[in-house]
Amino acid sequence: MPHKVDARGLSCPQPVVVAKKTLESTREQVVQILVDNEAARENVSRFARSAGHQVEILPAAGNEYIVSITRAKVG
């Protein structure tokens, strides 16, 4: 079950900060960040990829997106 976080309504760089803190504070393999604008979608995706994680963008309602981050395998 993925860990889900709602970052709608936050302006950049807050969605990235939320994603980073969530990845640091949970042990879930998949973290999903719900965002409501393209800038947040791109910035969260870029952050996660630069940290070595896999990213999938899932469309949600209206102009919303779920940035699904699968942790990089360690070891």
How would you characterize the overall build of this protein?
The protein has 75 residues and is of the alpha+beta class. The protein has a single domain (3-70), classed as TusA-like domain (Translation Initiation Factor IF3). The chain is 33% helix and 29% strand. It contains 2 helices and 4 strands; from the N terminus they run βαβαββ. It has helices at 14-25, 38-50, and strands at 3-6, 30-35, 54-59, 65-70. It has a 4-stranded mixed sheet with strand order 1-2-4-3, with helices on one face. Strand 3 (54-59) and strand 4 form a beta hairpin. Helix 1 crosses helix 2 (38-50). The termini are far apart. 24% of the residues are buried.
- Biggest sheet descriptor: 4 strands, mixed
Flag low-confidence runs: none
Distance separating the two termini: 23 Å
The amount of beta strand, in percent, is 25-35%
Oligomer: single chain
Mean pLDDT: 94
Question: For this structure, what is the CATH class?
Answer: Alpha Beta
| CATH fold title | Translation Initiation Factor IF3
Sheet with most strands: strand arrangement: 1-2-4-3
| Shape by Cα distribution | globular
CATH-level-4 superfamily name: TusA-like domain
- CATH architecture term: 2-Layer Sandwich
Secondary structure topology:
Elements: E1 3-6, H1 14-25, E2 30-35, H2 38-50, E3 54-59, E4 65-70
Parallel strand pairs: 1-2
Antiparallel strand pairs: 2-4, 3-4
